Amino acid sequence: MKKIAYLIYSILFFAVCAVPGVMLLQPSGEASSSAEKRQLAEMPAFQTENGAYNQNWSSEFQAYVSDHFGFRQELVSLDSHLKADLFHVSAEEKVIIGKDGWLFYSPTVNDFLRKATVSELGIQNIVHNLEMMQEFTEQQGSQFVLAVVPNKNSVYPEYMPDNYYHNNNLCNNYQNLHSALEKSQVNYAFLSSYFYDYAKYDMLPEPFYHKLDTHWNNNGALIGYRAIMDSTGLEYQNYASAKSHIEQNWKGDLQNMLFPDSPVLDDNYIYDIDFQYSYQGRYHDSDDITINTRNDAGTGSLLMFRDSFGAAIIPYFSQNFQTARYSRARPNPLYHLEDTHFDIVVLEIVERNIAWLQKEAPMHTALKAASVPQTDAQGKANYFTDKNGSQYLQFYGTAELPENCTSAPEYILTLTDDSGNAFSYRAYNCYEADKLESETILDNGWSLYVPTAELSEQNYHLTLTVQLPETCLICELGDFVPELS
What we know:
Elements: H1 2-17, H2 57-68, H3 72-87, E1 95-97, E2 103-105, H4 109-112, H5 120-139, E3 143-149, H6 152-155, H7 173-182, E4 188-189, H8 191-200, H9 218-232, E5 244-250, H10 253-258, E6 266-271, E7 278-280, E8 290-294, E9 301-305, H11 314-320, E10 323-327, H12 336-339, E11 344-350, E12 381-388, E13 392-399, E14 410-417, E15 422-426, E16 445-451, E17 460-467, E18 472-480
Parallel strand pairs: 3-4, 3-11, 9-10, 9-11
Antiparallel strand pairs: 1-2, 5-6, 7-8, 8-10, 12-13, 13-16, 14-15, 14-17, 17-18
Helix pairs in contact: 1-3, 5-7, 8-9
C-alpha cells in the first residue's frame, strides 16, 4: 500500500512539473506573503542607484522567480495535501500533523519530549534575573507577576502523534523553572495547574487552544487572565456568568503555513461580553509593538510585557484596568516604570521561549550595588558597550566561571573615575546572544544599562566582580571613555 502511495505521489509530481504554465510568473498582486509571514522578493533592477551594473542581479532574479512562479501557493498546498493524505506527514518543517485534525508547532518538540535545553545553571540565572526584575519593579512601587504560558502540546499531549513519546520521569525547562521558582520569592502565576483544574472540573468549554493554530483561544486566554489576576490578590471581574458561542472564523497560523490557499477555518469561541475599553493613540492591530487602552469604569493600571499569546488576553485586562499598556518590544522596556506609575507589571512568555529569560537584559536603570565584596582572587571577563539612544549606555559581556558551576553568580560592574569615585551596578545574568552574534545562549553572560546622565566623558576604570557561593573573583576590564554626544 505504501509503495502505491509513493507511486501516485511521484506520478502527480511529474505531471505537475510537465505543465509549462506552472513556470509562468504570477500576475502582479497574485503572490502573497501572508502564509509565510515574510516579504516576497521583488523584481531586481539591472542597475544600482549609482548607475553601475547590479552584480547580484542573477541571484536576486532567481529569488524573485522562486517566490512568484505561477500557482506557487496552490502547488505548495497540493504538495502538503498529498503528503498529509497519503503519508500523514507534514510538508512544512515547523508544523506537526497530530491526531483528529490537530496541528502543532515543531519548535515545541523538545519541551514535549521532556528534554531540558536550559542547564541547571541557566535555570538559576533565569530565577536570579526574575528576582532582579521583581526587585526593580517593587522599588518603583509596583507589583510584579510572571506568567509562563504552556505550549499547546503540554496542555493537549493526547493529540500528538504516537511517535513523539515523552518520558514522564524527565523534566523539561518549564518543570525545572517551576521547581526553582517555588524556592524563590518571585510572584508566579502557575498557569499549567489552572488548565488542568479547568479541564478536570469542566469549568470552561474545551478546547483551550485552537486546533489549527499555535495559540490559545479565548477560553485559554480567559483562564490565563484569571490565573494572573489571582496572583495579584486584587478583586477583579472574572466573567463567570459570561456565555460564549462558536464561530468558524479563525485562520490558524499552522494551517496557513501548511496549506497556504486552504479555505478551512478554525472554531473560535466568542464571549458575549460588552467590553467598554478604548484604544489610546494610534492602533493598527494586536501585533502593534505598544498598545495603550483606557476604561474609565476600570480601576488601577497595568504594564504588560507580552508575546503573541498576549493578543487574546488584552480585552480582559483592558476591561478590568482603568489604564493598560502592552509592550512587545525587545528587550523588555522596563524603563516605562521610571516615568509612569503602574500598579501591576506582568511578564508573559510562552513555554518554548523560556531560554530567552537569560538572553537579553530588560532595559532600565541598573540597580545599584549596596557593597562590593573584597577579594584577591583574579578572574577573566570581557565587555562590550552599546549606546541605546541617548538615555542608556549598555555594558555586556561574558566571564569565565568555575567548571560545574550550578549557582547563579552575582555580577557587579564598577566604574571608577580619575578622582577615585566608584559607581557600582548589579548586572543581569544574560548572554546577549544577538549582539554577540551567537546562535547559542550560554550561561556565563552579564548585561546592564547605565543611564548616560550618570556618566561623563572622562576616563573610567572598569572592574567586574563575580560573586559565587564559594569564591569571589575580580576581573580587570581596563579603561573606558564613554562617547555620550
